[in-house]
Amino acid sequence: MAVINDLLKTALTCTKPNPRVAYIAPQFNQAKDVVWNYVHEFAGVIPGVQFNEAELRCDLPNGGRLRLYGADNYERLRGIYLDDAALDEYADMDPRAWSQVIRPALTDRSGRATFIGTPKGANGFKSIWDDAKGDPEWFRLMLKASESGLLPQPELASARRGMTEDEYDQEFECSFEAAVRGAFYARELKLAEEQKRIGRVPHAPELRVHTAWDLGIDDATSIWFWQASGQEVRLIDYYETSGESLTDIVGSITERGKQRQFRWGDHYLPHDVEVRELATGRSRREVLESLLGTKVRVVPNIGIADGINATRMVLARCWIDAEHCERGLNAVRLYRREFDEKRKVFIPRPLHDWTSHSADSLRMLAVGYRQPAIATGDHRAQEQRRTANRVTGY
Questions:
Q1: Residue 344's pLDDT band (boundaries 50, 70, 90)?
Q2: E strand spans, the chain
Q3: CATH code for the domain defined by 198-392
Q4: Which of 178, 187, 282, 385 supports an S-S bond with 166, CB 3.0-4.6 Å?
Q5: Residues 6+ positions from 392 with CB-CB distance below 8 Å
Q6: Please, is 222 exposed, middle or buried when counting C-beta atoms within 10 Å of its C-beta (0-12, 13-18, 19+)?
Q7: Confidence class of residue 371 from pLDDT cuts 50, 70 and 90?
Q8: Which residues contact residue 268 at a Cβ distance below 8 angstroms, ignoring those fewer than 6 apart?
Q9: What is the mean predicted confidence (pLDDT) over 277-297?
Q10: pTM for the full predicted model
């Protein structure tokens, strides 16, 4: 594998003391499955090399070291230094792994990085690809099957017969525009793009700003900021953080509200906000209400499948601010079904990764928000609203 040989070359030839290089996959186990055998094969011929199987680490006789990591726990990379890093299948990684941890780890040693993988929509990988265009410090290469000649034509023809057009374009033609396989909201977001509903969506001062939350304990907390105007739902901002207390989170969104002059409306939170802490005897709902100074709305638990259907319906009438909601939008684009590698089929349940938090908070909006009737005298609309309220538990 070329990238492993490239990393080993850096580790062996770097003039700085004790060179450090890293291969990083979306998940730690994935890193082991994909390249650990290659590390043994290519580094095993070097006299004096040692392998640490538990840490997936290769120690070289010159003091250099190659180690495998997973971006699913990128925080554990904080504090290390790197001379070279290869980020494989970067489209599946939380972009903060690069910007907040890996990029700083390369800075002290003026290190370099390689990004490789399959395009999966307009996400962080697409941004890296676009940013590298015309930059003399970057080299970029796209190997389309139709142009590279690396794969025999009969094999490509066989693959095309067994795949959808989007699947083939993504896997073999390196298309960033193809719909992500298994993505829950690909159709709704594609339609929103076509109808120009994703772009600049200004905050309307006359409308109240509501929030929809996914509260994390050991992982991220995400919050959508939105306004309702008639039948429209306008997603105007997005906030995500991890490792912060409820006090810090409320302080951050309060400050954001001051900066953008928000008039607060309702705050929608998942049903588990009612769980009481053993240490204090208070629920997170009670803590949040005391911090926010207002009651919050607890969204009923109608199940993930029904919640996804509700989200699809809301997305059909959403206007989304591309700049302020960039991270949340990228995550929702990639929110997808889990893939069973053994059976080679998609499982109905969602894949739990960095995209889940944004999608879950958007689901709180979809399930919790009660769409107003079109007009007071519109009895059909009022009946639809009453039916929806019964379904969602209001």
A1: low
A2: 20-25, 50-52, 57-59, 65-70, 84-88, 112-116, 198-199, 209-214, 220-229, 232-242, 264-269, 297-298, 318-321, 337-340, 345-350
A3: 3.30.420.280
A4: 178
A5: 299, 300, 302, 310, 367, 368, 370
A6: buried
A7: low
A8: 210, 211, 212, 213, 296, 297, 299, 364, 365, 368, 369
A9: 87
A10: 0.69
